[in-house]
Amino acid sequence: MTSMDTEGFQEARDLLASADVVSVLSGAGVSAESGVPTFRGEEGLWKSYQPEELATPQAFRRDPRLVWEWYDWRRGKIRACKPNPGHEALARFALGSRTVRIVTQNVDGLHEEAARKASGGNDPSPGLPLELHGSIFRVKCTSCTYKVPHRDPISADSLETLPKCPVCGSLLRPDVVWFGESLDAEILSEAFRVAQGSQVCLVVGTSALVHPAASVPLATRDSGGRIIEVNPTETPLSPLARVSLRGASGEVLPPLLEGLD
Ligand code: BJW
Ligand code: ZN
């Protein structure tokens, strides 16, 4: 069965076609077909750790070497990944005439890469996402305000080899949002503002378990808009979605968004 035969496909296309403003909430599933491991489920395991054990400030304080080792491993995997047809379809959609804003939980930078490619040297900004959980390719100081882009491998052999702040000498850490940490207030309020003002929120590849990100589509629904979900499996948002398209985003999004630029 192709995605175009999926129940609700035409309804989803009609909803998107008649919307002036569309918000998109994406999660790790949108990058799965690029080879980026998701967090939860069988593919999501690293050694025997769960994200809740490593993506916390407590874990970093307890064992920064282990946490950096996990991030260095993930950064290496992501560096080798390219945007897939799902990212590309979203980027083309966002660069089209409709007002589209991509809000992502992903830290991999693949939406941005797809937007730069799709813009062909023109302004990529309508396709650049609001990054709710930061970027894995940026580091920040654990003590001062130092923050820089950082893509190179790091050595997590010992505490001594971990990256240190050039200003104050403290440990650097990935500039991502860990459990128990607040999201950037401006980015978060912009995400809710965009969702509230959109007629459709397209939710792609997220388990919708982590808040406040998982609440963003509720702002669309609470203001009278519709949620369209693209995910191979059911999530807590499925009962609230007008349409749930059960498939991989790299297969569903290109035909879903085709011609809606
Ligand atoms: C495909 C596919 C394909 C597969 N195509 N799809 C309200 C209620 C309960 C708890 C809380 C709450 N508010 C806040 C909390 C606490 C906590 C939380 O949400 N806990 C829950 C888990 C219970 N939230 C926080 O702590 C947040 N901070 C905060 O709220 O601050 C204020 C506060 C502080 C203290 C107390 C209370 C409030 C911060 C959350 C930060 C999350 N950080 C991480 C790590 C980021 C850095 C990094 O990458 O290392 O973000 S955790 C991890 O989960 C990552 C992700 O962005 C996030 C979401 O995961 P995602 O993207 O949904 O991925 P998966 O793997 O879960 O799902 C993949 C999906 O794709 C699946 O559904 C598949 O089916 C699908 N899929 N292949 C399409 N081809
Ligand atoms: Zn510093």
- Please identify the top-level CATH class of the largest domain: Alpha Beta
Provide the CATH architecture of the largest domain: 3-Layer(aba) Sandwich
**SS summary, helix count:** 9
Residue stretches low in confidence (pLDDT < 50, at least 5 long) are none
- The helical percent reads 25-40%
Q: On the 0-100 scale, what is the average pLDDT?
A: 95
| SSE pattern | HEHHHHEHEEEEHEHEEH
Q: Would you report the number of β strands?
A: 9
Amount of beta strand: 15-25%
Strands side by side in the biggest sheet: 3-2-1-7-8-9
Class from helix and strand fractions: alpha/beta
User: What count of structural domains?
Assistant: 2
Write down the Rg.
19 Å
Describe the structure.
- The chain is of the alpha/beta class.
- It has two domains: 1-36 and 84-132 and 183-261, TPP-binding domain (Rossmann fold), CATH 3.40.50.1220; 38-80 and 134-176, SIR2/SIRT2 'Small Domain' (2-Layer Sandwich).
- Helices cover 32% and strands 16% of the residues.
- α5 runs parallel beside α9 (249-257) and α7 packs parallel to α8 (216-222).
- The two termini are 25 Å apart.
- The mean pLDDT is 95.
- The structure holds ligand BJW and zinc ion.
Structure summary:
It is built from nine helices and nine strands. It has 261 residues and is α/β, with parallel strands linked by helices.
Which features characterize this protein?
single chain, 261 residues, alpha/beta, Rossmann fold, SIR2/SIRT2 'Small Domain', 2 domains, six-stranded parallel sheet, 9 strands, 32% helix, binds ligand BJW, binds zinc ion
